[in-house]
Write a structure and sequence with these properties.
five-stranded mixed β-sheet; single chain; six-stranded mixed β-sheet; 1% helix; mainly beta
């Protein structure tokens, strides 16, 4: 079985630059791996870099002018202290800077031209998560939310005006689930991968597992970059969330030759109702049919994924589906159908012109709608049966034993059952009108 992989949003470096792309004339280098630019706070003209270890870390500044001075601050730029540097031509370098400080260069006496660099040694802030579990204060039927003990220290920096700002970590959550395949109308197993921004215990995912699965939390993004990421697991999670896809199929219904609305359904109508859900998590299926005038009294209750029902009475119906998981914690009731069965109509003509104008009133045919049962007879004036039929869509062509009957009055009897369940009978005369030029006729 092919397992597909869904990645809603993975590890994204959009807007994040390597240290070799410097703000103004700054460059940051050194550490176990090239420094990572994780924040570019344009309004405050500050960039934040993560390094892994402070060994051989340096910040350089290049300018056509050799008149510039390095400074650093811990709380705000107005309290900055000067820092020594090495001049190498038009470039000056601060070696072995201290993390947790903002560094900047001033050219002349105008602080408005300054940009700022903040360093964080990521090796001092490893991810530390304990007792990973699924949160009990979230609705497992609708969302997946993790809980546990997060001992991970925050990554923070201070802007030049002294505002403390946090760097959001990103974590990757993965688990097996099921996804609906519209083309095949089946559920298929998939590996779901998503990202959680900030504290992983403050994020609710709207796609809870539809499968019993292991849940893994991996991170963070920065640890993956530096090759130190960790994976925390929930070894087994019993899924309870339900996803249901239902459909209807009209297997058979009566026809009509009376115009009506597009939404009306003619009786008798045999309709199949089918439900697909994420089994075996979804285990109890209940189909119920109600009349609109008795919404608390089901006409039928079937505990199967599929149901067929014959609608043969006039009225408005509601068909409801309930699907529950095996524990009874979650129930899906999102699928219901309104069925409107039309009233019976049956109209009988009093004359027709066989062979007179082909295709126009050349058969004795009733006009009908929602006729549940039908039987008709034609008799001559002596009571002899000339024709009988049981399908209201058919009609009498005015012949008896292959020959047209003479013009005149004939007698019909029609018995039928309507959508109100009552048997009815209609009888009367029908006139056969024929041209005197038409020959080849017989008198029954």
């Amino acid at each position: 079985m092919q397992v597909k992989k869904i990645r809603k949003s993975g590890w994204i470096f959009v807007g994040w630059l390597w240290a070799s792309v410097a703000l103004a004339q700054y460059q940051v280098s050194g550490g176990a791996k090239p420094p990572l630019l994780v924040a570019d706070n344009t309004p405050h003209r500050i960039q934040v870099y993560l390094v892994y270890g402070m060994e051989q870390v340096s910040i350089s500044y290049t300018s056509p002018s050799s008149s510039h001075q390095w400074y650093r601050y811990r709380t705000k730029a107005l309290e900055a202290e000067p820092v020594s540097s090495e001049q190498q031509g038009s470039t000056s370098v601060v070696n072995n800077p201290v993390e947790g400080y903002g560094y900047f260069v001033m050219e002349g006496d105008n602080p408005a031209t300054s940009h700022f660099i903040w360093l964080i040694d990521y090796s001092n802030y490893p991810v530390d998560i304990q007792n990973l579990r699924v949160a009990e204060n979230a609705d497992p039927c609708l969302v997946l939310r993790l809980d546990g003990t997060n001992l991970t220290a925050p990554l923070v920096y201070r802007t030049p005006i002294g505002d403390e700002t946090a760097i959001n970590r990103q974590y990757e959550i993965s688990y097996m689930t099921q996804a609906w395949q519209a083309s095949s109308k089946l559920f298929a197993p998939v590996l779901k991968i998503d990202t959680l921004q900030g504290n992983p215990f403050n994020v609710s995912l709207n796609d809870p597992p539809l499968y019993d699965t292991e849940i893994q939390l991996t991170g963070d993004l920065f640890a993956r970059y530096f090759g130190t990421e960790k994976t925390f697991s929930i070894d087994f999670y019993q899924a309870v969330a339900i996803e249901v896809h239902a459909d209807t199929l009209l297997l058979s219904s009566s026809t009509t030759n009376i115009s009506g609305s597009e939404n009306e359904i003619l009786a008798p109508a045999n309709i199949r109702f089918t439900a697909q859900a994420n089994t075996p998590v979804a285990s109890l299926f209940i189909w119920q049919v109600f009349r609109a005038d008795a919404p608390d009294k089901p006409l039928v209750r079937l505990t199967e994924p599929e149901m067929e029902y014959m609608f043969d009475r006039v009225g408005e119906y509601t068909v409801k589906l309930e699907v529950s998981d095996r524990s009874g914690m979650c129930t899906n009731t999102e699928n219901s159908y309104n069925i409107n069965i039309t009233e019976t109509e049956l109209l009988v003509p009093n004359a027709f012109t066989p062979e007179g104008s082909p295709g126009v009133n050349d058969e004795f045919r009733v006009a009908y709608k929602s006729v549940v049962r039908f039987q008709g007879w034609i008799f001559n004036r002596w009571g002899a049966e000339l024709f009988r039929w049981s399908d209201p869509a058919r009609g009498w062509d005015g012949k008896y034993r292959g020959k047209y009957v003479p013009a005149g009055a004939y007698f019909y009897v029609i018995e039928y059952t309507g959508t109100d369940g009552k048997a009815r009978k209609k009888s009367g005369d029908v006139n056969v009108i024929r041209s005197t030029k038409i020959q080849n006729k017989t008198t029954p």
